[in-house]
Structures
1.
Amino acid sequence: MKKMPITKPEESIIKEIEEQRPTYPVGILSRQERDLLIERGARSLYRWYTTRSQKTRNWHPDHSFNWRALRTDHSPEVNTVIEGVYGIENYAPDYTTRATHMLRKSYGRANFQLRWGAEEEKHSDLWLNCMLFMRFRTPEWIEDYMQYLRNGEWQAPWEDPLHLAMYVVIQERATQLTYLNIALFARGESDKPGFEGAADPELVKIAQTIAIDEAAHYNFFLEIARLYLYYFPAQTLDALVETIKHFAMPSVHLLPDGDKFMETMYRGGIYGGREYVTDVLKIALKHLGVNDRRALERGIKRSRQAPGPDGEMRETTFFDGFEYDVVETSVKRLYDRLNEYEEEVGLADIIPTQFVPSGFSGR
Ligand SMILES: [Fe+2]
Ligand SMILES: [Fe+2]
């Protein structure tokens, strides 16, 4: 018997079907699959990070600096800044405990927090040495200060891994900027009252060393944030906008004179509202593919769902002020780096971390 020819749909019908399709692309991976991809990425990046960290930033707070060369005649303003940054870094055990616990279900991110904490702890020791060798305060005063700080306890501003992922990007960039500006006045390049005569080569070395660590932290957290943006754009942008709205430097309220410290930072052009907007937010948002924060905040209130191929509602990537393509390019670049690393180690032969397209696309 002759087979019936399959009827070729009329062109107009095809056109009609096409028109009824959502006009924007939707993701095809399940939530679980996307969670796993982020976890695998974080795990591989953590390995890459520790290798690099041990090779390039293996300094010690006691032996990597010439402590006796540090100036002992700095202004009260300089001393206020050093005491304040010590106070903030001194909560490294709290930051580490809270973050590690919050992220305990992610092997990669939780383990990273341990390594991160070990690096932050060195910053605390470094500033402690700095206070001692500057001789502005007696060792007894410093001991009392330390005890006062130990009685306080840092609480995380967010209780979920996604918000934390956004918060740490901004926080690390803010800290890095603070240290770059301390290095700047220590090079004698500040004209702000109290900081204009602060040239101190050893202090430059100290501040620069920590700034490099903070840059490495920023880069790690930035990659994690981009993975979230790539696989969960809608929720991640919501979390990002919320985090920006509520961001504050950690632990300042736990310092005995936190207001004076922030005021001195502000007057010294080290860290304040202006620096936060231009040197922290602007840079971090650009790296996250956000080109217009206001537009993003407005757009975020609109619906971003469309039916997927199976009829289920899925996210779209149409957000005003956000360039999905920028994030996608960065994520692909990250996987190239991870693949190269795993190839070098041999892990690529057994369990390679492979890039999987989200199925979303930009405009
Ligand atoms: Fe730090
Ligand atoms: Fe850091």
2.
Amino acid sequence: MPFTLEGKTALVTGAGRGIGRAIATRLAGAGAAVIVNDLDDEAVLQTERDLRTHGHRIDHLTGDVTRPAFPQQFVDAALQAFGSVDIIVNNAGYTWDNVIQKTTDEQFQAMLDIHLVTPFRLLRAASEYIRETAKKEIAAGQRVMRKVVNITSIAGTDGNAGQSGYSSGKAGVIGLTKTLAKEWGRYNVNVNAVGFGLIDTRLVQATMGEGANIGMRGRQIRVGVPPDMLEGLISRCPLGRLGSPDEAAGAVLFFCSPLSDYVTGEILICGGGLHF
Ligand SMILES: NC(=O)c1ccc[n+]([C@@H]2O[C@H](COP(=O)([O-])OP(=O)(O)OC[C@H]3O[C@@H](n4cnc5c(N)ncnc54)[C@H](O)[C@@H]3O)[C@@H](O)[C@H]2O)c1
């Protein structure tokens, strides 16, 4: 490893499974203390147990990140557990798809809430700590880089039929990323986004029979991609396969590491070359 994240604290949302769990694992493996969140208590506890077994410093806060009060609670929990906030990964997300004429206001708003409003609230919640800490470091002549990584999608950069809400949320978070890169450069924060193509998680697993459901505020929302559509996409992907959660996490780790200290406001696509 050409770097270490020893002494850094990372916050990762939606880390009970899939890409978020892989990101938490990569960050902990690089030496960071990690506080993980998920809606699903059992899943987030499993992530915590796995990482603790390997001797990593880990804590968790279960909860729905879209609740307006949650982001501040998550920042406070990180400060209480580990004493700093150095890396924030806005990863929690899900899909709730349909063509526009069948998309309700609630559905469209839910996609903006999870993919755009929540990252905004979490970064706003962290801003006081980040600004005040950076001012002291700069006054002491130190340059300490902090990292924000927002998770987007090729649905956000390219658009995707059947995903007006999801694509809008994922496109919106790119605007947030580029703006915060400009606001927070003076505080030595690198703010970047990673956009995924097709990564092998519950979100893309082929919807056979019942498929996978996500329980969200009392609703069961079906996620997954129909098998024929998934096959078609894989055949159009230059690398000819889905990416693994660990491969996805590698791209995120780059933006969390000192290797990206002079990169900010950028979108890295990790999708095997696939574009919609
Ligand atoms: N899998 C892909 O191909 C793909 C492609 C592009 C972008 N993404 C994005 O990557 C991120 C991770 O997705 P994944 O594929 O690992 O999916 P996943 O379903 O395997 O994991 C997502 C996790 O987020 C959690 N979550 C969802 N809503 C939440 C909420 N309101 N509060 C707290 N936790 C919540 C879920 O419980 C789940 O554990 C998402 O932002 C997704 O949009 C994934």
